[in-house]
Write a structure and sequence with these properties.
Oligomer: single chain
Radius of gyration: 19 Å
CATH architecture of the largest domain: Sandwich
Strand order of the largest sheet: 1-8-3-6
Shape: elongated
Number of domains: 2
GO molecular function: DNA binding; DNA-binding transcription factor activity
Keywords: DNA-binding, Transcription, Transcription regulation
CATH class of the largest domain: Mainly Beta
InterPro entries: cNMP-bd_dom, cNMP-bd_dom_sf, Env_Response_Regulators, HTH_CRP, RmlC-like_jellyroll, WH-like_DNA-bd_sf, WH_DNA-bd_sf
GO cellular component, one term: cytosol
Organism: Winogradskyella ouciana
Structural class: alpha+beta
Number of strands: 12
CATH superfamily of the largest domain: Jelly Rolls
Length: about 220
Amino acid sequence: MQSIWFFDDVNLFKVLCPHKFKKYKDCHDFNSYRKSDYIYFEEDNANKIYLIEKGKVKIGYYKEDGSEVIKAILGKGELFGEKAILGEQKRDEFAQSIDNKTSICPVGVNTMHQLMRDNQTFSFKVYKFIGFKFKKLERRLQLLMFKDTKTRLVEFINELCADYGYDCEKTGNKIIKHPYTQKDIASLIGTSRPTLNILMNELKNHNHIDFNRKEIKLLKNIA
């Protein structure tokens, strides 16, 4: 199943990072971030786009009451801040590292536009990815609108299993070691932490899963 909540299977870093192009190789740097560091805030100037060399980045915004809404969690090879390419002047979201060893390649919008003008294939890949990302987000919105919370949670766990699961040699069960807090998961599936806890414990009581803060064990199929 292709991921609805994450975009890990498209490694744009391999083809879009300017250090792959001789003309730009010596005039850009990589920035390092630790967990909870912000890459940019809402209302910051949108003058760069960013490629993830390694680590994880959370994209979201804050509601008027101060609560956080997560739009996506991105990993290695992902592009974010891409609306600057399309003319965005101010950020309407924040980007925050959720890994202690996140490495980001920032690319100025002018540099990106020059790369796109110079290389038609490169330009096509950029626009194809942006369209792909919007399509994924639209599909996520449809899930949030038309599926109940428990179904969204089950699909999310199956997504996590595809991305982070491995077989336990002793029991044959799937073990999912993931980097997300309960707050992250609740926000991604569009529910509250208390509701998430109730549903997780319901799945546990029916012997579908066992879990702790950083690990979910699949005891039997929950699809």
